[in-house]
Design brief:
The complex is a heterodimer of chains A (about 260) and B (about 290).
Chain A (H helix, E strand, L loop, with lengths): L2 H18 L3 H23 L4 H34 L3 H6 L4 H33 L8 H25 L2 H16 L1 H5 L1 H4 L5 H10 L9 H5 L6 H27 L5
Chain B lengths: L4 H21 L15 H7 L4 H22 L8 H11 L4 H12 L9 H14 L4 H15 L2 H12 L8 H10 L4 H14 L4 H33 L28 E3 L4 E3 L12
Antiparallel strand pairs in B: 1-2
Helix pairs in contact in B: 2-4, 3-4, 4-5, 4-6, 5-6, 5-7, 6-7, 7-8, 8-9, 10-11
The chains are: A mainly alpha (about 260), B mainly alpha (about 290).
């Protein structure tokens, strides 16, 4: 992929960003996320001590939940909408590869999520500031983990949106995201089903995206160290799994009845 | 749209009017007892991967609200859900220190202040010590509570000595453990423990509770001296005094007839016994 390929990807990404920031669902979810973060202030008033922990728990969980919903609901529409509206046909009749289209869509929504997560993080810091706490850079490590998870949700949503309708893609992506949060249950499946073959358990464990990898909320809230090496490996995992999902999406798009 | 505007102007006030009518017609059932659908945090933990800590906060808030509501508004103060709520909270977040600390005091203190179930409270602190083995303060609380609520001076002292060996532990823990062993049934040791607790804690429930317990010990001392005065009166007169005024001829040491919160001690003329009055915040019942 040369410089012109990169230019095309950036053009698609920029269009996708403009398109996604026009989505009403985005604003609804962001408003809910802010409200949830602010509710941490109220909840902390109801508790005895540990107000800081509650504000952080609520704020990070809001980012996680609403970020995932944004990635999911906007992500599944990125390609399937184009297919439904038949706007993909003229797009691909231009000198634009399917891979470039997918990468552009992925980068565009990825940037939208980055902006949103940045705003939510600012909201969380302001909420903490309102409770008299100083800036805490360690929180950014948890936010980075959340962002990696959201990028993986986008990659999965793109994959399913090339395979099926928006609704079904949303259901499939949601199911996989939920399954990925239960990866430790999958790993310990033989405790519950002793007869389950080890190869099957291992296959499932490695096949399902491990969203537990990206969860540093507890460590950050309790001030435990989050090693940089751990973050680097998790980044590599997200990159590898995301690349697999996007290349599968490209293959699926290639087999579609498109020009 | 313009034509429909007057319609909603009329419709908006209609809603509260209808609601008032509904309220008047329909009898609302009294809220039933609170229910816990899931009784173990382990089940709950499985349902919310990645959000266990958020749920622990929610359960902790529920615990605090439940405790406050039972304590202030319930007639029978059964605190039935208190222990399971604290268990669930600490299963969801095994590092939530306050849940062990406050949960134990909520459970151990006798009614009306707490549930009056010291065994359950001690189990919560033991769980805390297992989950946070480097936390000397939790271990210190476990030692205190064993002594104060179970009367287990030997066990309490042993736990205090364990706490004393942890990094950052207060230097006086070992000597307090020795005192506990030497004077196992001494009110002075209890006073020392509550005084330390009062000094250590920040403003709030634990500090207030420690102060109440210190005042209660003073009140118990005063009650003892009053009852001794009653005995002297009985020997002299062949009967107990009819009321506290009759003791004026033989005033007890210190001469106080009210507890440190200002509530007069209750006097039973039949038995000839003084006690902390039920109306006093220093009064403690049984389980």
């Amino acid at each position: 992929m040369g410089a012109s390929g990169l230019t095309r990807i950036l053009a698609v990404a920029s269009n996708t960003y403009r398109e996604t920031v026009r989505e009403r669902v985005l604003y609804n979810l962001v408003v809910f996320a802010f409200l949830m973060t602010l509710s941490g202030l109220l909840l902390s008033e109801l508790s005895i001590r540990e107000d800081e922990k509650i504000v952080k728990d609520v704020g990070l969980a809001a980012m996680d939940i609403f970020g995932t919903l944004i990635a999911l609901f906007i992500g599944v529409g990125l390609v399937s909408k184009e297919i439904d509206r038949r706007s993909l046909h003229p797009l691909l009749s231009r000198p634009l590869r399917r891979r470039e289209l997918l990468l552009g869509k992925f980068a565009g929504l990825g940037f939208t999520l980055l902006v949103n997560l940045g705003a939510m993080t600012a909201g969380l810091y302001l909420t903490l500031f309102a409770t008299g706490r100083g800036p805490e850079p360690q929180l950014l490590k948890a936010v980075y983990g959340l962002y990696l998870g959201l990028l993986l949700v986008v990659a999965l949503a793109l994959l399913f949106s090339t395979l099926t309708s928006s609704v079904l893609a949303a259901v499939c992506t949601f199911s996989l995201v939920v399954a990925g949060r239960f990866s430790d249950v999958i790993r310990g499946m033989q405790d519950v089903i002793p007869g389950a073959p080890t190869w099957l358990v291992r296959l499932l464990y490695f096949a399902v995206p491990n969203f537990r990898n990206f969860d540093f909320k507890a460590q950050v809230v309790y001030g435990d160290p989050v090693p940089w090496a751990g973050l680097a490996w998790v980044t590599l995992y997200a990159a590898a799994y995301g690349a697999v999902a996007l290349s599968l999406a490209e293959a699926a798009l290639r087999h579609k009845d498109l020009p | 749209m313009r034509a429909s505007r007057p319609l909603w102007v009329f419709l908006i006030p209609l809603v509260p009017l209808v609601q008032i009518r509904v309220d008047g017609l329909l009898e609302r059932p009294e809220p039933r007892d609170e229910i816990l659908y899931l009784r173990t945090g382990r089940q709950l933990k499985r349902l919310v991967p990645g959000f266990e800590y958020l749920l622990a906060d929610v359960y902790w808030l529920r615990t605090v609200q439940y405790f406050g509501r039972e304590r202030l508004f319930s007639k029978d103060q059964r605190y039935e859900l208190l222990h399971p709520l604290i268990e669930i909270t600490t299963d969801l977040d095994p590092r939530l220190r306050i849940a062990y600390k406050y949960g134990a005091i909520f459970l151990c203190e006798r009614r009306p202040v707490g549930k009056g179930d010291p065994e359950a409270g001690i189990r919560i602190l033991e769980k805390g010590v297992r989950n946070l083995p480097r936390d000397w303060r939790l271990r210190q609380d476990l030692g205190y509570f064993r002594y104060l609520f179970l009367g287990d001076a030997k066990g309490g002292a042993a736990v205090l000595l364990e706490a004393a060996r942890l990094p950052g532990a207060a230097f006086w823990l070992a000597s307090l453990a020795e005192t506990m062993l030497d004077k196992s049934a001494d009110r002075g040791t209890a006073r020392e423990i509550w005084r330390r607790t009062y000094e250590q804690e920040e403003e709030g429930f634990l500090k207030d509770n420690a102060l109440d317990n210190l005042r209660r010990l003073d009140a118990l001392d005063a009650v003892e001296s009053l009852n001794a005065a009653v005995e002297r009166f009985r020997k002299r007169q062949g009967r107990p005094p009819r009321d506290s005024r009759e003791l004026a001829a033989d005033p007890p040491e210190g001469g106080r007839l009210a507890d440190p919160t200002g509530v007069p001690f209750a006097y039973d003329p039949q038995e000839g016994r003084f006690a902390i009055a039920r109306e006093s915040r220093l009064w403690r019942g049984g389980k």
